[in-house]
Design brief:
about 325 residues; TIM Barrel; globular
């Protein structure tokens, strides 16, 4: 079966092959701040967890950072306010979410070798008490189960196939249900799936080495990296009460300051879509003296971008090859 390629992918490769991208970069077709977001770096092939969390291989990440360092002004968190207020300039900011250990073992050495900084948004509960987050636990359950299907039930109005050919679609459906649930229902939902799939909950031992340690974060901080909050337990904040949101936002900041010894004024929303945070979230951010909050809904920030609690970020994923990556940074108004 022939591989289908989208018009944007075709354009990206055409710009790369013909040299059109290089010409566009020389004339600067955009101004502002393009914020890129990563989760994991490396090869997911042998992992029992969610393969969609990997953003790039080590080789691809090295190429991406080298390209950015050569062609753009790669800024750190401390440069963000100044950069947003510049009428001209192409600024790129690098961010990571969650706190996976490969951020330290794979990404950090590459960032250092190119002399650029990144901001890492940490879900502190995963550092303090390592465990599999919902997306990884669901992926593990589906890889471990011997069940053939899930019958319709109180969580799923119709049956779900567990055939190998349906696993990715099933994973997306189960995760979507999880993300729609109120704060108090997420654990009962995972308990139900663990029972009906016959797997039990993911053993803590499997996730222990998945996360960075506080010592690793302190080493990265000494090496020029910066950090921000990403809640304690990574809930969809809009699904939580105002008190629950206040605790997630405030306790995360408290732990980061306690361990890293520096002010924390940046935050990224778990999941990061526009419906995943609300006015209660913004109120908590203001209360705890955050200055910046980052979404995950694409786009870039043009000069003078005013909503500092809804900064645009463009996610990077493994299927984005170097040609597409170059297109994203050359024409973010089209590709981001």
């Amino acid at each position: 079966m022939p591989v289908r390629i989208s018009k944007l992918e075709l354009l990206a490769h055409t710009l790369d092959v013909t040299g059109g991208g290089r010409v566009l970069r020389s004339v600067r077709t955009w101004n502002g701040v393009l914020i890129l977001n990563y989760h994991r770096i490396g090869d997911p092939a042998n992992s029992p967890f969610d393969h969609d969390l990997w953003s790039a291989s080590v080789v691809d990440f090295e190429r991406q950072i080298g390209f950015l360092a050569k062609n753009f002004d790669v800024i750190g968190l401390s440069d963000l306010e100044h950069s947003l207020n510049q009428p001209r300039g192409q600024f790129v900011m690098l961010t990571f979410d969650d706190g996976y250990r490969d951020n330290y073992s794979a990404a950090f050495p590459i960032l250092k070798s190119h002399g650029v900084s990144a901001t890492f948004f940490i879900a502190t509960g995963f550092i303090d008490c390592p465990r599999a987050p919902a997306w990884d636990e669901l992926a593990w359950m589906l890889r471990t189960t011997t069940a053939a299907s899930i019958a319709a039930n109180e969580w799923l109005p119709s049956s779900v196939s567990l055939a190998e050919s349906d696993r990715q679609r099933t994973f997306s459906r189960l995760l979507s249900v999880y993300k729609s649930l109120g704060f108090e229902l997420t654990e009962p939902y995972l308990d139900f799936l663990a029972d009906v799939l016959g797997t039990g909950r993911c053993p803590l031992s499997l996730a222990h080495d998945q996360w960075m340690t506080w010592d690793m974060l302190r080493e990265m901080q000494a090496g020029g990296m910066t950090f921000g909050g990403h809640t304690v337990d990574h809930p969809i904040l809009a699904n939580a009460t105002s008190d629950q949101q206040d605790w997630e936002v405030g306790e995360c900041r408290r732990r980061l300051i306690e361990e890293l010894g520096q002010p924390i004024d940046a935050f990224s929303y778990p999941n990061g879509q526009r419906g995943d945070f609300n006015e209660f979230t913004r109120a908590a951010l203001r209360h705890y003296d955050y200055r910046w909050a980052f979404g995950f809904f694409g786009g870039y920030c043009p000069p003078g971008y005013a909503d500092h609690f809804a900064l645009c970020r463009r996610g990077i994923e493994t299927e984005i090859d170097l040609a597409r990556f170059r297109a994203i940074t050359t024409l973010p108004q089209l590709f981001s």
